[in-house]
Amino acid sequence: MIEATSMNPAEQAAEKALASVYNCIEQRKSFLLEAGAGAGKTYSLIKALRYLIDKQGDLLLRRHQQVACITYTNVATDEIKSRTDGHPAILSSTIHAFCWSLIKNFQPHLREKLPQLSQWTEKLSEAGGIGTQKIDYDLGYRTIKEEHIFLGHDDILSLTVALMEQAKFRNLFTARYPILLIDEYQDTNKEFANALKTYFISTGEGPLIGFFGDHWQKIYGDGCGKIEHPALEVIGKEANFRSVPVIVNVLNRMRIELPQEVKDPNAEGFVAVYHTNGWTGERLTGQHWLGDLPPDVADKHFDALKERLSTEGWCFEADKTKILMLTHRALAAKQGYSSFVDIFQYNDAFLKKEDPHIAFLVDTLEPVCTAYENKRFGEMFAALGRRTPAIQSYADKMSWAEDMNTLLKLRSMETIGAVLDHLRITKRPRLPDAVERKEQKIGQRVEDLEPDEQSSIEQLRKLRDIHYQEVIALDRFIDGHTPFSTKHGVKGAEFENVLVIIGRGWNQYNFNQFLEWAEGTIPSNKRDAFERNRNLFYVVCSRPKKRLALLFTQKLSNQAIATLTKWFGKSNIHDTF
To answer: pLDDT tens-digit profile of 245-264?
Structure first.
C-alpha cells in the first residue's frame, strides 16, 4: 500500500476500494466493484489477480485449479495475460472460449439440449434431426456436416446456461475454477448472469465471483446491465484518474450516487454546451428526425464551432481530439457511406451488422481482401473459414490469384452487386447461406415473392447498386480508423479533447427527451429507454482528459436546457446564434 500522506485524492479512493476487494477475497464473499469512467477498473482487476497469485497461486496449481478471468475481447484477454506475466494459475479468456472449454466434453447433453434451441429447430429438422455427430465450435457459423455440427457464437452461452441446471456440471465448474472474475460485467449475457446468481450467488455454493465494471457504461443491447443481489458486496471505486476537475464535476452532478475524486485538484480544463435553439429556419420532421437541423445547416454549425474552439486552444489533429457524432446522417455523409442511411430503416442494420449482407461484407470479405493485399495469407484463410475450398495444387494457386485480383478491382471500381456476382461464381469466399438465399431471389418479379419478402428484396436491390467503396468506408468507421466515431468503439477509450455532436437520426436515442427525464420524472414504461440514453451520454462525456464540448443540433426544450445548466453551469451554456 502507498502511504496515505503521499497519495492524491484519486489514489486514496482507489486504495480504499482495493482494500475492500482484498477483504472480500479473504472472506470468500462474492463482490461487485462499480468503477465509474476513468476510475482505473482494469488496474483494480489486475491488482486483484496479482493478489490471488501471491496468496493462492501455489495452492491453486497443486490442486490443478485456476482463477478464471472472463473478458469480452481478445485484446483485453491478451492485456490481462501480459499484465499477470502469463501466470499458469490465471486463465484469461473471452466468455465464449471459456464457456466452450466447460461444455465441450458434455457431448450427450449437448446433443440433447441443441434441438431445444429455437435457432436450431428448423435447421436440424431440415437435416433429418440430430444424429451422432460431434458438437463442435470453431468460427461461430452454424453448420451441419456429416461428422460434425458447428455451433454459432450465441449457442455457446445458451448451452452453458442450459447445462448449469445440472449439479454435475456446476461441480465441475467449481472444481476447475474456484474463483471467477468478470471484466466489464455490465456487458455479460443476461441469461448467463442470471444463471450465476441463481446457481452460485443465491446458494452460497460454487466459485467466489467478482464482478468488475460499471452499469452506467452498458451501451450494448444484449448486456445484463446492473447486477443486484443481497449476497453481493458492492464496492464503489470513487476515483477518476482521467479527467480534470471541471469535467469530473459535471460527471459528479450527473451521477451523485458515485462521486469521484480527481488526481490533480488544480488541473485546468474546459467544458461547454452549445445549442441551436436560436436558429429560426424550418427543422426536420419525421419520427426519428423531428426537431433536428437540416444536414447542410448542421454542417455549417459544426464547422463554425470547430473554428471557434480552435481559437480557444483546441487542436483538431486526430491524435488530440475525437469528434463523436450522436447523429447519424451527418456522420455517414462525412464518412462516405451515406447511401446505407437512405436504404436501411434502422442504423443498427449496418452499424451493428444485423443485416446478413453487411455482416458478410464487413466481417468476412473486407478482412479477406485486406489480408490478401498485404500478403498475409494465413490471416486470409483464417477469415475465409471452413466453407472455402483449400489450395491443393499450383493450378489452384494461379486460379486463386486471378480471382482475388479481379475481386480487388471490382472492390475499388464497381458496385456491391458486381462484387457479389463475382463471388457467386468463384466462391472465394463462399457466400453464407442467408446471403445466397436472398441473392437467388433477386431475379424474381416482385409479385412472385411472398409478401414479407418483397420489401427485403427491394432493399437488397438498392443495396447492390451502392458503390463498393461505401462498404470500405463503413468498415473503417466501425473499426474506429477515423477521427469521427459514435458509441461503437468508444467505450473504454480516452482522448485529450472531445467534441460531441448530438442530434436525431437514431431510432433508439432522443437526448432532449432524456434530459427532460433526467431531472424530472421517468415514465414507468420508459426506464430502459432512459438508461440507454443516459449511459451513452455519460460514456461520451467521460472520454476527455482536458476539454469537453457538446453541440446539440436538435432543438432543446426549456427543461432540457435546465438539466444541462444544472450539470454544466449557466456560464457554460451557449446559444450558437
So the answer is: 999 999 999 999 999 999 99
As a whole number of angstroms, the distance between CA 381 and CA 359 comes to 18
| CATH fold label, 269-344+488-575 | Rossmann fold (3.40.50)
Look at 27-31, 65-69, 132-136, 418-422 and tell me which has the smallest mean pLDDT.
132-136
Which residues, 6+ apart, have CB-to-CB distance to 436 below 8 Å? 424
Q: Are 346 and 221 in contact (CB under 8 A)?
A: no
Q: Which residue from 267, 265, 268 is spatially nearest to 8, judged by alpha carbons?
A: 265
CA dihedral 46, 49, 53, 56 (to 10 degrees): 160
- In the DSSP assignment, the letter for residue 86 is T
8 Å CB contact between 344 and 350: yes
Question: Which pairing describes strands 148-150 and 143-144: parallel, antiparallel, or unpaired?
Answer: antiparallel
Q: Pick the residue with more confidence: 316 or 474?
A: 316
- Grid cell of 286 as nine digits: 419525421
Q: Would you call 354 helix, strand, or coil by DSSP?
A: coil
| pTM (two decimals) | 0.77
φ/ψ region of 188 (left if φ > 0, alpha if ψ in -120 to 50, else beta) reads beta
Q: Give yes or no for residue 429 having a pLDDT over 90.
A: no
Cβ atoms of residues 227 and 185 within 8 Å: yes
Q: Which CATH number fits domain 4-92+178-242: 3.40.190.10, 3.40.50.300, 1.10.10.10, 3.30.70.920?
A: 3.40.50.300
Q: Report the phi/psi class of residue 40: left, alpha or beta, with left for phi > 0 and alpha for psi in -120 to 50.
A: left
Backbone angles phi, psi at 11, to 5 degrees: -65, -40
- Most distant CA pair in the chain: distance in Å? 79
- Please check the confidence at residue 538 and state whether its pLDDT lies above 80: yes
Domain with CATH 3.40.50.300 in the chain: 4-92+178-242
| pLDDT above 80 (res 451) | no
Total residue count of the chain as it appears in this document = 577
